[in-house]
């Protein structure tokens, strides 16, 4: 048997815990996040450029969002275990809000005036009128998407308008409210000490319970539990749809449980390949259409979600070493996500769909990546330099150990320098 084949067979039959396979910054999370961000761009290419879904049997964008939440759950729970609750919340705020705020300002103060001027020949009435720029900024400033458009911009001008209606400028931002909700839930669990080793079984129990609800909803769609209606409006976050909170919250919870049990979670190449095969097979059957009121029965079949979560984590530790550098020092995935929708809407308005699906995707991806690079180097990365800032009144005297939980016995004290610990996007 050739040596390479022997090595592959041996690795397929041998398991090692996630704690051993996962090496701090040497992992594929950054590459996966960027791939998921580009998958969202590709999915939106058909919707925004051509007024139709990219695929009819699988929602690529929803699948990418589910992957984002799995990664975020793993990394964010790890952050919460390494830091005090105030420090954890401070880190999350720095990671999600500065980039979002600049994106909103760019949309409201640069994109909107140009589009309004093109439509009306003036910018009078754009700023303070109901549904204008100031309302857009005020409604969306803290995350989520409570005002979708600005004035009458894009109304009747884009393929997406003719397909779905609405003049949404940046529809991608809606998932950020769900991400922030997950952050706050993790902070509560950390404050209650549920994330400690002695009580981590409570999180695993929650995964099992939610998994049971998802299976019940799939088998008994007429008696589905917690899929209709919404929660809220909540302070800052607005209204959260129960369906999306159930599905994406489960993926976040699964990633978080994997971090809590990474000393026992087996990473096995055979299991990883079976998980990927299961996801592919169920996607081909149409079981990954996505959540929501218009989804087909059986959308996001629960076992498929569990297999997908494992596949994402397995890929993170098994992707080639050359991909470990992607996103390790410069993470552009968040910027690609928060800018790509508005980029594609503008491109659709000026006629770029004439380039075809491939051409429209390529141009929009390159422009989004360019804006993401500017966002990272000018906004996100400088903001993250404040992660270690402490208010003067809370600083420890010189020479004393820094506040915060100490690493558990046998657990490495990972330093949170990985920019991949970014918000999930979708």
UniProtKB/TrEMBL annotation:
Chain segments carrying region Disordered: 385-426
InterPro entries, A to Z: Acyl_transf_3_dom, Acyltransferase_3
Acyltransferase domain location: 31-375
Keyword Ribonucleoprotein attributed: no
Keywords of the record: Membrane, Transmembrane, Transmembrane helix
Residue stretches spanning the membrane: 34-54, 60-78, 99-117, 173-194, 201-219, 244-261, 270-288, 300-320, 332-352, 358-379
UniProt KW Signal keyword: no
Organism superkingdom: Bacteria
Biased composition range(s): Basic and acidic residues: 408-417
Name of the protein described by the UniProt record: Peptidoglycan/LPS O-acetylase OafA/YrhL
């Amino acid at each position: 048997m050739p040596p390479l084949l022997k090595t592959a067979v041996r690795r397929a039959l041998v398991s090692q815990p996630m704690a051993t396979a996962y090496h701090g910054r040497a992992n594929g999370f950054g590459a996966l996040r960027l791939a998921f961000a580009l998958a969202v761009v590709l999915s939106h290419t058909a919707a925004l450029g051509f007024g139709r879904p990219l695929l009819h049997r699988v929602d690529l964008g929803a699948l990418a969002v589910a992957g984002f939440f799995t990664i975020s759950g793993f990394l964010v729970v790890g952050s919460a275990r390494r830091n005090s609750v105030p420090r954890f919340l401070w880190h999350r705020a720095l990671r999600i809000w500065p980039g979002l705020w600049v994106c909103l300002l760019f949309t409201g103060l640069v994109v909107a005036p140009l589009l309004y001027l093109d439509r009306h020949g003036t910018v009078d009435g754009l700023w303070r009128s109901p549904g204008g720029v100031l309302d857009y900024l005020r409604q969306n400033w803290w995350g989520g998407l409570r005002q979708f458009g600005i004035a009458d911009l894009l109304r009747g001008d884009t393929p997406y308008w003719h397909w779905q209606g609405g003049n949404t400028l940046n529809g991608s931002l809606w998932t950020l409210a769900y991400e922030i909700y997950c952050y706050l839930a993790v902070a509560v669990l950390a404050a209650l000490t549920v994330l400690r080793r002695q009580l981590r079984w409570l999180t695993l129990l929650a995964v099992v319970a939610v998994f049971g609800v998802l299976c019940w909803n799939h088998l008994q769609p007429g008696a589905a539990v917690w899929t209709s209606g919404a929660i809220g409006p909540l302070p800052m976050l607005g209204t959260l749809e129960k369906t999306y909170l159930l599905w994406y919250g489960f993926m976040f919870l699964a990633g978080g449980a994997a971090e809590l049990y990474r000393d026992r979670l087996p990473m096995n190449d055979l299991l990883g390949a079976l998980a990927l095969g299961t996801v592919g097979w169920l996607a081909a059957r149409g079981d990954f259409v996505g959540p929501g009121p218009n989804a087909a029965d059986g959308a996001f079949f629960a076992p498929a979600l569990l297999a997908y979560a494992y596949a994402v984590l397995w890929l993170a530790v098994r992707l080639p070493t050359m991909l470990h550098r992607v996103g390790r020092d410069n993470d552009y995935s968040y910027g690609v996500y928060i800018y790509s929708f508005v980029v594609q809407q503008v491109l659709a308005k000026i006629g770029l769909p004439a380039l075809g699906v491939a051409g429209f995707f390529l141009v929009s991806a390159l422009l989004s990546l360019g804006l993401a690079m500017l966002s990272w180097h000018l906004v996100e990365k400088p903001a993250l330099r404040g992660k270690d800032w402490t208010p003067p009144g809370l600083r420890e005297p010189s020479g004393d150990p820094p506040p915060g939980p100490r690493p558990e016995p046998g657990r490495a004290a990972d330093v949170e320098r990985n920019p991949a610990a970014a918000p999930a996007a979708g």
